[in-house]
Inverse folding.
């Protein structure tokens, strides 16, 4: 009896052992199936099937170039890639702009950038060389040089030359004349900057200048060279206009006794746009200097019909405009004054738009 019980007990232990092995095998199979399913789901997340039954395609990240920088607010920025214009954008109220160039070749590119400021001056084109690694987005910071113009084009000895233009707001603009004389100005919130030069100690002849600008984290390239001319005080005036229109040409036939009058806009004019056109009358072929808040902002010649026109960009809520006729360093009486009121938040007055000349 004891032996029989011992045999039955041995059989039970053997059966239990086989059952344990079977359970372990089942768990191994289930774990394997779960692992394969996980791998399949992970691969499915990175593969895209174009249509049922078609081969799957791997999604490869694009090689992109993000061009960004700062210029004058509300400026039209152009971006060229390898000599071809590939995009344009308008800078925001802080002067910042971005332009995405998607799906580029992974190679070395030469990127050019320039802009047109609110007064339609064009900056010097800045160029940058950049290597694009594959399947990633490369960020390129570009900062073209400030825009600049001067008035008058020619000045008699001892006369004043006014330089003005636009840059990134807050930038320090450096103007270098003849390689050894430096003037500086700081761009205001609209990007506008201006500075003046007394030509008293300059020699007669042409003088070359260029500009650049610097901010907290950037330095622009140097602009292209420009020049102004100083003429002897005994020679006839050869001053040139800042803005010249068809049919305008200076002449010695100007009558200084004819008063200068601003005809538009009228005094107290209210506008919701920054661009205005100042018009007036004067002696045909005479030169007119237009000042805003006591600072010269432009010089034009009166046409044969006694009319003159100057586009201007408002920079503060209220600005006072007057004009006068000048012959060299001698100027006549000031015209009537006109107050222009700028209200950008008043939508009933219209929207800000670019003046097309």
């Amino acid at each position: 009896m004891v032996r029989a019980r011992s045999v039955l007990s041995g059989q039970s232990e053997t059966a239990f052992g086989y059952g344990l092995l079977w359970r372990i095998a089942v768990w191994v199979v289930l774990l394997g199936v779960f692992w394969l399913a996980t791998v399949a789901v992970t691969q499915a997340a990175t593969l895209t099937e174009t249509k049922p039954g078609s081969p799957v395609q791997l999604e490869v990240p694009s090689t992109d170039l993000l061009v960004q920088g700062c210029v004058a607010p509300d400026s039209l920025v152009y971006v060229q890639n390898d000599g071809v214009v590939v995009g344009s954008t308008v800078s925001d109220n802080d002067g910042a702009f971005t332009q995405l160039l998607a799906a580029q070749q992974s190679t070395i590119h030469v990127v050019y950038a320039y802009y047109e400021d609110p007064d339609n001056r064009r900056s010097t084109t800045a160029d940058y060389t950049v290597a694009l690694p594959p399947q990633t987005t490369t960020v390129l910071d570009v900062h073209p040089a400030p825009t600049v113009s001067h008035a008058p084009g020619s000045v008699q000895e001892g006369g004043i030359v006014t330089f003005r233009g636009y840059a990134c707001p807050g930038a320090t603009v450096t103007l270098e004349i003849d390689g050894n004389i430096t003037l500086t100005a700081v761009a205001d919130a609209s990007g506008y900057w201006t500075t003046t030069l007394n030509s008293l100690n300059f020699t007669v002849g042409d003088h070359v200048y260029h500009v650049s600008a610097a901010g907290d984290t950037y330095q622009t390239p140097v602009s292209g060279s420009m020049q102004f001319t100083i003429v002897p005080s005994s020679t006839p005036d050869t001053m040139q206009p800042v803005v010249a229109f068809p049919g305008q040409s200076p002449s010695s036939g100007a009558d200084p006794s004819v008063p200068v009058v601003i005809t538009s806009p009228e005094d107290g004019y209210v506008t919701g746009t920054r661009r205005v056109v100042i018009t007036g009358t004067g002696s045909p072929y005479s030169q007119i200097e237009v000042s805003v808040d006591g600072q010269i902002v432009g010089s034009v010649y009166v046409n044969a019909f006694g009319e003159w026109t100057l586009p201007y960009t408002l920079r503060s809520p209220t600005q006072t405009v007057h004009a006068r006729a000048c012959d060299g360093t001698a100027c006549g009486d000031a015209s009537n004054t006109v107050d222009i009121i700028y209200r950008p938040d008043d939508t009933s007055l219209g929207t800000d738009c670019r003046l097309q000349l």
